[in-house]
Specification:
The complex is a heterodimer of chains A (about 140) and B (about 190). Chain A is mainly β. Chain A is built from 1 helix and 8 strands; from the N terminus they run αββββββββ. Chain A has one helix at about 1-15, and strands spanning about 20-30, 35-45, 50-55, 70-85, 85-100, 100-115, 120-130, 130-140. In chain A, a hairpin with a 2-residue loop joins strand 1 (about 20-30) and strand 2 (about 35-45). Chain A is globular, with a radius of gyration of 16 Å. The N and C termini of chain A lie far apart (about 35 Å). The relative contact order of chain A is 0.18. Chain B is globular, with a radius of gyration of 20 Å. In chain B, the strands form 2 sheets. A 6-stranded antiparallel beta sheet of chain B has the order 1-11-2-7-8-9, with no helix packed on it. Chain B has a 5-stranded antiparallel beta sheet with strand order 6-5-4-3-10, with no helix packed on it. By secondary structure, chain B is mainly β. In chain B, a hairpin with a 3-residue loop joins strand 7 (about 130-135) and strand 8 (about 140-145). The chains are: A mainly beta (about 140), B mainly beta (about 190). The interface of A and B includes residues 86, 101, 102, 115 and 132 of A.
Chain lengths: ~140, ~190
Amino acid sequence: MKAVIVFASFFLSGLVASAQSMTVQTQSEWTVAGIQHGLSVGYETRSSWGLGVYYQAELEKESEDNVTRDDYRGIYLQAPVAKAERLSFFALLRAGFANNHFVAIAPGLETRVHISQRLGTAFGMGLRMGYASVSGRLFLKMF
Amino acid sequence: MLRVLIYAFLMHLLLTSCEIIPEDAQVRHFVIRQGEHYSSPRYVETLQAHKLVFEATFDETAVYDIADYYQDSANKLLGFSDCNSEHHENSARFGWMWFNDRLEIHAYCYLNGERQTQFVGVAALNVPARYEIEIGKSEYVFRFNNNAPVVMPRGDTCDKGVYYLLWPYFGGEMPAPHDVHVAVRMLR
């Protein structure tokens, strides 16, 4: 356990110390259970590795067939896969709690389009609740 | 810049034109092969809400005739292990058996390692039936179609953690006497 904490501390401190920017994102995710909207905040290093927190929730039940109104919060880890001039591709791993009690892990892939130096849009595909999900984001690099 | 904006616009079009997965595509067809206990395909998933709700449809392959000693042992349909528990410690599932010439549905739970079952209702073959398990503070509530809910006690578990889903399983001790098919549609 100690080794894990020490390793995580080294990793996190290194990530924060070399952080190039702080990123704020609004996001919407189409899951098999409905659409969730949310926000995430994270650090991003010069090499585009990222670590942050997110919260997203269904704002309303889409239909009476909807059994639950879900939310999902946790931390995300972003790893760069490829980069072009204005396009970047990432692998994304989200881990957290669904509905405050249930551990949920969601891997995914994301494509970012940089509209300007600070502003951009992204779309992604992931795996949520055993089915594919699609997400869209707007991101802003704060500083 | 223009090219990027066009690309972004196209991506948004792509996203907003996505269709909801049709109901048929959400149905999972499980089969338990003759001589086996576990169903295929195998899924690794966790529960992510306080309710597990699904529709399941059995066909004629749910009818079997095995030695009387085993005839009344429950097969498992769907359920979950409770918070960070192994499923023989704390779990809640629907069980089923072909017994008395009908397809009986049971609540099938482990409570601190002790098995508890209770009759819930009778399912018709080739007709989708609605199943629901709701997690309460100290109990599970089993609902099956419009039958009266059945309340089962819940063991001493944590509150936050992993609740892994449990999929169709034949037995008991006896493996499937022939291929058994069941179609499941998860309701979210």
